[in-house]
């Protein structure tokens, strides 16, 4: 059985999805500041691999890597939800079926604790 990664067209399509995702994110006044000074070319490569991983593509990715990459960014739950929504809308734009969108965003959401900063009480 083909993976979602294969069904969407592999890295060729995923790179376009991720580019469109970041176009959407960088146009958002709330999300764009998180990317000030970021090497977007490197980030897009990194994110393409991450989305491929979420789609059962041929990529190895660890939760520890994800945690370390986001540890100092101060991402809160609302911002995380906005990013999930941006990914959902991007996947819809590319014609993914609802069940496939739910799979990807559900796997992203399952990693929320690795991305969202712990609240300081």
Could you give the topology of this structure?
Elements (H helix, E strand, L loop, with lengths): L3 H5 L1 H17 L13 H15 L8 H8 L6 H17 L4 H12 L2 H4 L6
Verbal overview:
This protein is mainly α and 121 residues long. It is 64% helix and 0% strand. The protein has seven helices and no strands. Helix 2 crosses helix 3, helix 2 crosses helix 5 and helix 5 packs antiparallel against helix 6. It is globular. The N and C termini lie far apart (47 Å). The mean pLDDT is 90.
Which CATH architecture would you pick?
Answer: Orthogonal Bundle
The overall pLDDT average reads 90
List the quaternary state of the chains.
Answer: single chain
Largest sheet: none
For the record, the CATH class is Mainly Alpha
What percentage of residues falls in helices of 4 or more residues? Answer: 55-70%
- Total separate domains: 1
C-alpha-based Rg, rounded: 14 Å
Shape, principal axes of CA atoms: globular
Short summary:
This protein is 64% helix and 0% strand. With 121 residues, the protein is mainly α.
Write out key terms for the chains shown.
121 residues, mainly alpha, Globin-like, 7 helices, 0% strand
